[in-house]
Design brief:
- The protein is mainly beta.
- It has four helices and 22 strands.
- Strands 5, 10, 11, 13, 14, 15, 18 and 19 form an eight-stranded antiparallel beta sheet that branches. An eight-stranded antiparallel beta sheet has the order 6-7-8-9-20-17-16-12.
Length: 319
């Protein structure tokens, strides 16, 4: 029976070459959904449902060439979000080569039918010069039986000098949407946010739902564990479930900003929306030996209609 199981597992995980010869891992779930992750950046670049429909946005001009980070998919922002610190924007995890852990810790016995890969990142000598802290970052990418995508991050302080370190973090997820003008985000209404377009001034969100008609770059604070993105045209709702990530960044560059981003097509902004599970307002501090564990789970479900409107409550209250 073990031999049979290992054969099935081997078919569900493929290590191959991607764009420009970069190594990537393909996870295949038995019902047909797939995930692709590049070892460069520990970067998920594709998540397709059982019908082969792409659920993540990847820029038409994405550059798969180190040291440039890949534009789209799910970049990992660590150990710094944006320019909130002395490092390059969004830190260095997204432009380092991760390794595959061939002997990862198992799931609990109660968890079955999940395809997963564990990637590891440890600092290089160069990294220690710009951020003098030793760490181990374990990223588990899991594809569930319903096609759900789960990213679990475990970051451990392995400093031997007794020093704690502090960091900010985000899963910078780019969702694929049919038309940004037809999209609503539910679950963030009435919350406080920091507006990155206004020197991170603090405001309170007004209105029933977040819709898009211009550039948006906000850090929502103390957010719920579940956020929904409703795509009216595709009749699809993305549900983000998150643990240990209190903040949520909502970003779309709109037309003018899009034209200034070299690795983003001029019209790409219409088909993307970033909703990023994050910890920004209150950075995390780890003492030596301490580990921080967080996760985000993404699912895509058909939207239910109610008097011509999408009914987010059905989504937000289920599960």
């Amino acid at each position: 029976m073990m031999d049979e199981m290992s054969t099935i597992e081997n078919k569900s995980i493929e290590i191959t070459k991607g764009i420009n010869g970069l190594d990537k891992v393909i996870l295949r779930e038995i019902h047909g959904s797939t995930v692709e992750v590049y070892l460069y950046g520990g970067h998920v670049t594709s998540w397709k449902n059982e019908h082969g429909e792409e659920l993540l946005f990847l820029s038409s001009k994405a550059i798969f060439k180190p040291p440039k980070a890949i534009r789209g998919g799910i970049p990992i922002c660590f150990p710094q979000f944006s320019n909130l610190g002395s490092l390059e924007a969004h830190g260095f995890a997204r432009n380092r080569v991760w390794i595959i852990d061939n002997d990862p810790p198992p799931f609990p016995p109660t968890v079955t039918n999940r395809v997963y890969v564990d990637l590891l990142l440890k600092p290089t000598e160069e990294d220690l010069k710009i951020w003098p802290h030793s760490f181990e970052y374990r990223l588990r990418i899991t594809l569930g039986p319903g096609g759900d995508l789960m990213l679990t991050s475990r970051i451990r302080n392995t400093n031997t000098d007794g020093k704690p370190f502090t960091f900010t973090f985000a899963y910078h997820t780019y969702f694929s949407v049919s038309d940004i003008s037809e999209v609503r985000v539910e679950g963030l209404e009435t919350l406080d946010y920091l507006d990155n377009l206004k020197n991170r001034e603090r405001y309170t969100e007004q209105g029933d739902a977040i819709t898009f008609e211009s550039e948006v770059d906000k850090i929502y604070l103390s957010t719920p564990t579940k956020i929904a993105i409703l795509d009216h045209e595709k009749k699809r709702t993305f549900v983000i479930r998150k643990d240990g990530l209190p903040d949520a960044v909502v970003w779309n560059p709109w037309d003018k900003k899009a034209k200034t981003i070299a690795d983003l097509g001029d019209d790409d902004y219409k088909h993307m929306l970033c909703v990023e599970a994050a910890v920004i307002e209150k950075p995390i501090t780890l003492k030596p030996g301490e580990e921080w564990k967080v996760r985000q789970e993404l699912s895509a479900v058909p939207s239910s209609y109610c008097s011509g409107q999408l009914d987010p409550n059905k989504v937000l209250q289920s599960g």
